Amino acid sequence: MKWITRERPKIDRIACPWLIKRFIDADAEIIFVPFEQVLIKAEELGATPFDLPDVEYTHYEDQCTFDYFIKKHQLKDLALNRIAAIVRGADTDRHDFSPQSAGLEAIFSGLAYNIKDDQELLELGMTIYDGLYSWAKHLHQLKHTQAGPVEQMLLEVFHKYIKQSSAKKAPEWTKELKEMIQDQLDTNMTLSLQQASDELEINPAYLSREFSKYFDNLSFGDYIRKLRIEKSISLMTDTDYSLTEIAYLTGFSDQSHFNRIFKKQTGQNPSIYKKSILKSKKDTNS
């Protein structure tokens, strides 16, 4: 039997073929085509479309296509139900469905980033879902590294593929964003994530998700606060400004806010920190 869906699969569109080939039809042929061609090619090839709006095999309410396959083909397997919760959470961005959902999404996001051939991606995905099924069937009650071979396999995938993507050259927008942030620090103007995404013409959700990869593994807000504190330390060292003036010059709403963030970043109150700098200067000059 032939099954057809949209190209560039990631989570549900790899989970469903795995389910088909392992539990429904071992000889099934899985076809990936551009979105606008799925229904046309389905009719031409006599293939059943899935994970597409307005077809039978698709999402229903908060459940994804994988859930429907299990229901439609009456697959009674607790391990598949455990996997369904993980896939549902990863595919719908509802990580509260299962604690493993975020990890599954991270793995397949990294693989899809590195592998452009859909059939190659599916082949590797089959191995990953085989491992996930073994965990769900036999090892789900074990904790952390007790899980042994299955967890080790997932870690190997992570190190081989996802870490490769982090080593790739940073996209061009990171350079522009660094310049925008520096302008903010130099002029004491505010810069929000939304403003940055508008200026860069990048989706804010994408920018928020990708930001930490290229900015010290910090969120947008934490990175800005880190730079502000670094600037405040520089001002303490090189100028005679009061802490109130430094708080203003580094973009904090008031000194209380500045004190709180400074202590969180450095472990010390700014007044104590400044005194230690002044003492160090005095000792050096004497």
Per-chain topology:
Blueprint: E1 2-6, H1 12-24, E2 29-33, H2 38-45, E3 48-49, H3 65-72, H4 78-91, H5 101-114, H6 118-139, H7 149-166, H8 172-187, H9 193-200, H10 204-214, H11 220-238, H12 243-249, H13 255-266, H14 270-285
Parallel strand pairs: 1-2, 1-3
Helix pairs in contact: 1-3, 1-6, 4-5, 4-6, 5-7, 6-7, 12-13
Explain the overall architecture.
This protein has 286 residues and is mainly alpha-helical. The chain folds into two domains: 2-166, no CATH class; 172-285, Arc Repressor Mutant, subunit A. It has 14 helices and three strands. It has helices at residues 12-24, 38-45, 65-72, 78-91, 101-114, 118-139, 149-166, 172-187, 193-200, 204-214, 220-238, 243-249, 255-266, 270-285; strands at 2-6, 29-33, 48-49. The protein has a three-stranded parallel beta sheet with strand order 2-1-3, covered by helices on one side. It starts with a strand and ends with a helix.
Please name the defining characteristics of this protein.
single chain; 286 residues; mainly alpha; Arc Repressor Mutant, subunit A; three-stranded parallel β-sheet; 14 helices
